[in-house]
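Hello,

Our lab assistant flagged a job as stuck in the queue for most of the afternoon. It eventually completed. Since we weren't sure the result was trustworthy after the delay, we are filing this so someone can double-check. Below is the sequence as submitted and the structure that was eventually returned. Let us know if re-running is recommended.
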Amino acid sequence: MFRILIVEDDRELRQLFEKVLVKNGYSAIGVSDGAQALETMEHEYVDLIISDIMMPVMDGYELVRSLREAGDQTPVLMITAKDAFDDMRLGFLSGTDDYMVKPVNVNEMVLRVGALLRRAQMISERRQVIGGTQLDYDSMTVSWDGRSVELPQKEFLLLYKMSSCPGRIFTRQQLMDDIWGYDTETTPHTVDVHIGRLRDRFRDNPDFQIVTMRGVGYKVVKKEQAGEKAFCEKTGAAKVSGQR
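-- returned structure --
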């Protein structure tokens, strides 16, 4: 179960966030300022932080800067009453991963939390293997049979995401949220274009193929198991998808 740390000095709002997150299958811990958050993280592991900006003792900007300077890359979703571009800019420059303005739509918050956790999981694993094909995140290369292909970032992330669970269907919108970001103005047609390029590049790959699920999205399947149902559709990956 993913554990979320909520840093918010408004007690009622903090309790609302905790209740919503628990209802959606997360574990939630609440504190009232950045200093308490750092103290909590010394003895508690958290997967993601939801933080206000304006708080006593230590504000959200300082909290995120402290984490990043210490090498902590825990995803942070900043939630604040400040809606000016400069405030948002300061948030991202401090190391924030996503940003929401109050009043918060809690359903949207849950969607953003899910997308941030999926992206963080992709990055932490660093490598995927399908048969004899290896996808290396650090170099954004795909290698098989003595060949190595370096991909453009979005193409690599798209293939990396789908290959993380062969056989599982990913909708176009889900891929857009996870790869291009929740706030992107890019249309889902972009996914189709990138899928076409990937198919051209790996048409002769012996280990996997990209299958179109008409009207739904795409999935990567192992060529020797193309007719089998992927195990991950029944396990954790399916449950993560169900949180959306």
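-- support follow-up --
The delay was a queue issue, not a problem with the job. The result is valid. Residues 194 and 226 are 22 Å apart (CA to CA). The mean pLDDT is 85.
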